[in-house]
Design brief:
By secondary structure, the protein is of the alpha+beta class. Helices cover 21% and strands 25% of the residues. A hairpin with a 5-residue loop joins β13 and β14. The longest helix has 21 residues. The two termini are 15 Å apart.
Amino acid sequence: MYSTLQNTWCGPDNIENYQPILTKGFASSGKSESNCYKNVMSEEEDKILEELINIWTKIAEELDITWSVCAGSYIGALRHQGRIPWDDDFDITVMKEDWEKVDKMDKKLLDKYNLKKHTIYKASKIWLIKLYFTDHRALRHGPKSQGSWPFIDIFLVDKKDEQDCDFITKSELPVEKKPFGNTYVNVYKNPSKRRKWVKNLIWKNQVYDDGHRHKWSKNHLIKKDIIGTKLQYIRDGEAENCKAINI
């Protein structure tokens, strides 16, 4: 549940457990501390992201792609029944046998929905595909390597490379619909404990704002992986040194 008045999350139930967030608004010892734990998207921005999710759901049905939320979007679906308020993108993964369907989404199909995709590589392999609007719903245009915001990150990786958003396995099926704000998303019913936030359930008892803000990012930090491939990491100073809060 989102609190319009306080612009912070007050929890779907047992609201008394979340009073530290309501009364303080943040928990930090560093600069920009008042930006910790704030709802970083407006109702209109949420609506656009949900439109993007709904269009992706329709495309996935058309192409017979099995998918599930992962990473922060997985936590959001289970803990918030929607986006984590201080998170501003949407992370999903697919089955390995479906990755070529995702990779080959053609311009004709994407133009039909005013979408564009951008493929990001890591160590010379496809890492993820960003999906975003090309019309008035593209609220911020980033560098070519980032695309526009809001966006969906579709991960296309093996478990040896990524143990949170790696490919869905048959043992994790079926996927089931879960509420996500004003829409519904797919969540694997039997997620493997190899996944970081399935094995580590600290998020059930603790919230943490890591300061990532795709919406406001103006500068990006370029790092290199072990073979020299350039990777882009986005981290803003809008919320720094936020302390974890037990709930």
